[in-house]
Amino acid sequence: MRSVGDKMVILVTGGARSGKSSFAENLYRDKKDVVYIATSKIWDKEMEERIKLHRESRPFHWRTYEGYYSLTDALGEEKNYLLDCITLLSSNIMFDVTDGKDYIDYNLQKEVENRIFDELYSLIQAIEERRYNLVLVTNEVGYSLVPDNHIGRVFRDIQGRINQRIAALSHEVYLVCCGIPVKIK
Length: 185
Prior knowledge:
Blueprint lengths: L8 E6 L5 H7 L7 E5 L6 H13 L5 E4 L13 E5 L1 H13 L7 H25 L2 E7 L10 H20 L2 E6 L2 E4 L2
Parallel strand pairs: 1-5, 1-6, 2-3, 2-4, 4-5
Antiparallel strand pairs: 6-7
């Protein structure tokens, strides 16, 4: 398994439980100066347990930044950053912006997408300006069934476009399936 080289942005994608987070973390296995950017928030007991397990599985010397806005606030003296995951960041921002609406028209969808992209783009720009490394983890949402409700379809569409835009900015992109990473860019 390789580790992150000099100053790059890597996107890691795959389905749920595909092994993408493990692969992303292994890219930094030999690094001491890592910041883990955790984008989830606790909304129920299950998520609380998942977050606890994730915290316990990371190396103790990695610093953790929790949030999905103002991502550049995570930057410090460390040279290596891992954001896990874009999908949770997107859903959190989408629900903040749409405020529980039952229907999200195309103008609001574009606003949500742009807010998500702006957060990620600001982080990527800051990482590149400082010549740091960044690994981003996201879910591939296009391989499943078409959601049977409007909100689910809107989320899938926004996330698919975000993944495309971030992949275009990344130096390398990996698709992880059954725990096996395949370099696609």
